[in-house]
Amino acid sequence: MTTQILSVPEVYQGQFGNFTITKSDRRGVIIYRTGLIIAAISFAIASGLALFYPHEPTAIQAITPLYTCFSLALGVSLLTIHIYMKLLHQILQLFWIIGSITALIFGHFDSQPFAITVYNQPLTLFGIGFTFAALTGLFFKEGFCFNRLENKILTPLVPLLLLGHLAGILSTQAEEVLLGIWVILFLIFALRKTVQKIPEDIGDQSVFDYFKNQRLANG
Question: In the chain, N or C terminus with fewer CB closer than 10 Å?
């Protein structure tokens, strides 16, 4: 006779009671981390082309699809990330949507390559920059929750580089150094996420349930 052994979900003690983690929760974390890896690699390759082949037309043209891949992967991560405050989660997603629409316009309706347009016309960052505001929010959340050094550096570094370029106060050499640091730390962050325990990214589900019940109670 064959005895079927059913796996019992592990019960965790949360701030507002016990909770379990489902396969769907774990799948969401894997998707979130996969999005981060794809976004980081795409961003790194695009940045490398800009830094090392700035005068090669083919390389500059290749930045457009790489940025698209980065943006889409980031969008997937922002969709599946676990954030206790629903409003903050929605704001980050809204920022991504605004930045993506702007990038789509400049990427497909401008005669110049996308990278050239953004670099030579810093005012485009008022639109495209929303994508990086969302990314900065993600860095801040991870740095706050897990005390990661790379996230603590990336959180001020990203706006420093973008706003510095927008205001024209950074030299080309300074921008290249900051971009290089950004690439390295982004890759470190994404790679470290792959070995982090999955329940840590899911967080305290009892908090989500508490906020949900509060919203239902308030109408």
Answer: N
